[in-house]
Design goal:
Layout lengths: L2 E9 L6 H7 L1 H6 L2 E6 L6 E7 L4 E6 L4 E9 L4 H18 L6 E10 L6 E3 L5 E3 L2 E9 L4 E7 L3 E6 L2 E5 L3 H6 L12 E6 L4 H7 L5 E5 L3 H10 L1 H4 L7 E2 L2 E4 L3 H11 L3 E7 L12 H16 L1 E13 L3 H10 L7 E10 L4 E10 L1
Parallel strand pairs: 13-14, 13-17, 14-16, 17-18
Antiparallel strand pairs: 1-5, 1-6, 2-3, 3-4, 4-5, 7-8, 9-10, 10-11, 11-12, 15-16, 18-20, 19-20
Helix pairs in contact: 8-9
Length: about 350
């Protein structure tokens, strides 16, 4: 059963008479039949907990620097109107006790914790976003990752891999950006897509009449889920692993890239849709940085002299990680140059950086 978690904060211009203020609030909790327990904070403000017979649990904390916080947890079946009334009365009483001497009152919508449908997903730069997700349409664990496709009322179906929002049906802007934002002529060209199991890049590339597209996706279950539940993104291109101008290889791209390099096979465009730039430059991310550098180096080897390599970067706020990625470009086996573009991807709810890289 889910729990709703309400928060109500009062920012005071100066510390108040905490015991007197807290005592003035007692009647509100008594009316709600909530039992009070006062805790010893060893001089660090004032702390009271409240337990109600209907399972409600409240924490009222007055900090010595002037912040008063109230947290209330309620079970899913609790009366929402009663809870709202409790919070309204608490806010009204605080204003009365402090004679309106409050700088700011902040009340957030309830967090739904333990819900069957998870609607909270972090952005790349660590902010929490609540999506309007109403159902799970697909979930599988492959040998590589956890795969979810969730339905959002705004964004359509959203592909989430290992807890990261990858792509929603609303996110054509992502696909267009990672293909060059409409500035490239794909007609008669040879294209290599790394990853892209949602089928979005393949679907859009096929429309541009290339000579041949080779897509290398390691996870068949991603393809299976998106074929059925991301039709607005992939169209019908995932119905078959081969088409008039494309083939999909369900393989690890690293040995495929090495094989192409050994065979001397080259491409006009290489589109890397495998992974974003790591959000951190910490040592625990070293393996991901090594993987990115390996893919870059191998991709440049199969890129024609006039070809272009497209990839995503990450959130525009992650300046340190993006700078490290740009420094990595100077360590490749041949000299390259790059440009970047910032695009708003709807379901990400943040600005996203995309790179175009070419040989000097």
């Amino acid at each position: 059963m889910a729990v709703r978690h309400y928060t109500l904060d009062f920012s005071l211009p100066a510390p108040a008479d905490l015991p007197a203020t807290m005592q003035g609030l007692q009647s509100i909790f008594q009316e709600q039949e909530m039992t009070e327990t006062i805790h010893d904070t060893e001089g660090h403000g004032y702390l009271v907990t409240f337990i109600g017979k209907n399972g409600r649990f409240g924490v009222l904390r007055a900090h010595s620097h002037g912040l008063v916080t109230f947290d209330l947890q309620c079970c899913e079946g609790d009366d929402v109107a009663q809870v709202d009334n409790l919070l309204n009365e608490l806010e009204k009483k605080m204003k009365s006790l402090l004679h309106g001497n409050i700088k700011r009152i902040k009340r957030l919508p309830a967090l739904r914790r333990g819900d069957e449908v998870d609607r909270y997903w972090p952005t790349a730069d660590g902010r929490l976003v609540e999506y309007d997700i109403d159902k799970v349409v697909y979930e599988e664990d492959s040998v590589y990752q956890n795969i979810k496709i969730l339905h959002s009322q705004q964004f359509g179906n959203i592909l989430i891999l290992n807890g990261d929002v990858n792509l929603a049906e609303s996110d054509l802007a992502y696909t267009q950006a990672i293909m060059g934002s409409g500035k490239e002529n794909y007609a008669g060209k040879e294209v290599l897509i790394l990853g892209g199991g949602d089928g979005g890049i393949l679907c859009e590339a096929v429309k541009l009449k290339p000579k041949m597209i080779t897509m290398v996706e390691i996870d068949q279950l991603v393809i299976d889920g998106c074929r059925k539940h991301m039709r607005k993104t992939c169209g019908n291109v995932l119905d078959s692993l081969t088409g008039d101008c494309y083939e999909v290889l369900v393989e690890d791209c690293v040995p495929v890239l090495k094989r192409f390099a050994e065979e001397g096979r080259t491409f006009d465009y290489v589109i890397n849709d495998l992974t974003a730039v790591p959000i951190s430059t910490a040592p625990e991310e070293d393996s991901t940085w090594e993987f990115l550098t390996l893919i870059l180096d191998l991709s440049i080897k199969v890129l024609r002299p006039t070809g272009k390599y497209f990839t995503q970067g990450n959130c525009v706020n992650l300046t340190e990680a993006l700078s490290q990625y740009e420094e990595q470009l100077g360590t490749l086996s041949c000299r390259v140059d790059f440009s970047k573009e910032v695009v708003c991807v709807p379901s990400y709810m943040e600005l996203w950086v995309f790179y175009t890289i070419w040989k000097k």
